[in-house]
Amino acid sequence: MLINEVKKELEEHIIPFWNKLRDDENGGYYGYLSFGLELDKQADKGVILHSRILWFYSNAYMTLGSDELLDYAKHAYEFIKNNCIDYEHGGVYWMMDYKGRPADTMKHTYNIAFAIYALSSYYRASGDKVALALAYGLFDDIENNTLDEYGYREAFDREWNLVDNEALSENGLKADKTMNAILHLIEAYTELYKADGNEKVAQRLRFQLGQMRDIVYTPETNALKVFFDTAFNLVGDIHSYGHDIEATWLMDRACDVLGDEELRKQFAEMGLKISHNIQNIALEDGALNNESDKGVINKTRVWWVQAEAVVGFINAYQHSGEEKFLASAKSVWENIKKYVIDPREGGEWYAEVTFGHVPRESEETVGPWKCPYHNGRMCMEVIARNVDF
Q: Which chain positions lie within coiled-coil regions (predicted)?
């Protein structure tokens, strides 16, 4: 039942929605659709958004096999290749205007990681060696420009001078380093290693996994720390439930792709502890709460958090055989169907829904962060894992 339902959601709802966002006049995909489903064709186009769209169509093609999907992927790829990469100073821009010109030239490790993730997937889908070469160029940009004695710095101007990391900070805090950036570097380098098997990529991936295990993970609470200063001292008291459950399966994926049995064992054990913790403290009324800040729980149902919860709980079930994880995945999927999927003509998924099941009209349907990556990936992961209920 689950596989049929998510396949239908992917093929008949998510893909057709994003197909309509294609901008054949100026390239790429339109950057903004309001909650009221009003399209702004002159809105800026996020580079993170376009990397996620490229990843989405590349993997949808590899999952479903339709040549049309590869064409949509190529359309996103051409925009990234021709507009978003800074061929003079390296990296990718943060934001383009609607015509594909740089609107914000900030360089961010997180943003570059998503470009690597997308280009590596597009190479696997298309065999385009230029895409792989671009991914390696961005890998070198990160390794040559962002490292300090502790790890990866995150926010820079166009010429790689450090700037405030406002883009990945929140809740009134300023963080030099974030769990979020490390997690998505792991995701990106996993995909690049899967594409080409380069040992230097494997070496850096192991380093990042080590940081998650030894610095970010807290064994006493079975949770991941979120914000840090340069030397990885903790900043703030935030627990991001969605990132925790997402991290469990992304770290497992990295270990699987590396083929490292010792790491696989370590992270499977760690991931199960995190999954149990999230199930116990964050699952409420059939959905996953968002986060805790100084002990105050934010119960907003965020679209990406719900999507990652489905995958994370299925992953925990596959590791443990514990039926309660499968029951949790089912409860979240039922909640998604009932409250998060937008039933309106021309809608996709609501970005945020209150604990009382009311969609937040302040949150756009498409924007720099609102994309087909989490919910589309959830559908494809369920299909690939072949776990049903």
A: none
Give the total residue count for the chain. 389
With 90 as the cut, is the pLDDT of residue 388 above it?
no
Query: Domains in the chain, start-ordered, CATH in brackets?
Result: 2-385 (1.50.10.10)
What is the DSSP secondary structure assignment for residue 328, as one 8-state letter? H
pLDDT tens per residue across span 334-380: 999 999 999 999 999 999 999 999 999 999 999 999 999 999 999 99
Secondary structure letter of residue 79 according to DSSP: H
pTM for this entry: 0.98
H or E element that contains 315: helix 303-320
What amino acid is encoded at 287 in this protein? A
What does the H/E/C string look like for 3-72? HHHHHHHHHHHHHHHHHCCECCCCCCECCCECCCCCECCCCCEEHHHHHHHHHHHHHHHHHHCCHHHHHH
Maximal CA-CA distance, the chain: 54
Q: Are 227 and 239 in contact (CB under 8 A)?
A: no
Nearest to 313 by CA among 357, 271, 375: 271
Spatial CB neighbours of 328, under 8 Å, sequence gap ≥ 6: 279, 283, 309, 313
Q: What is the pLDDT of residue 194?
A: 98
Of 292, 277, 179, 275, the C-alpha closest to 239 is 292
pLDDT in tens, 230-287: 999 999 999 999 999 999 999 999 999 999 999 999 999 999 999 999 999 999 999 9
Nearest to 71 by CA among 133, 137, 24, 135: 24
Q: pLDDT at position 170, please?
A: 84
- Residue 220 has φ and ψ, to the nearest 5°, of -65, -30
- Cα separation, 381 vs 211, in Å, equals 26
Burial class for 300, CB neighbours closer than 10 Å (0-12, 13-18, 19+): middle
- Rounded to whole angstroms, how far apart are CA atoms 81 and 61? 20
Contacting residues for 269 by C-beta, under 8 A, at least 6 apart: none
Nearest to 348 by CA among 100, 121, 39: 39
